[in-house]
# Entry
Amino acid sequence: LDYCSLFAYALLPNHYHLLLRVKDNIEKGSFSRQFGKSILSYTNKINLRDNRNGNLFLSCFRRIKIENEEYLKRLIFYIHHNPTKHGVVDDFRNYMYCSYKIFLSDKPTNIERDEVLFWFGSRDDFIDYHRYLHHEDSIKKLTFKEDLM
# Structure
């Protein structure tokens, strides 16, 4: 990950969430271009595989600036909980396309696991935080006017 650091993700059938931090030494606009190339490459592979044409995603990616640690923790929970929120699985902790289980493992990863666990205090505190449903409204008011998917 030359352009950014990855902290959390959830890949759902119709959308995805990524929590990234763009590295400070990156030229302005280069991350957006690189990310756009990745999405285009993915779209081309799916179109070729499924013998189709056109966009896979309705709109460009959106980004928000995170300015406090409590909001950051709630956002990580929100991303992990998203597969359950949208009815993809009953329990997000069992969803294989979400970063939650990576934080419980010691296997090598590209996720900034140690930094995220530090924000929560410990692995046990991370697990405890994810046991409780956190109010989505406290996240929405800090992000976009429309519902986060």
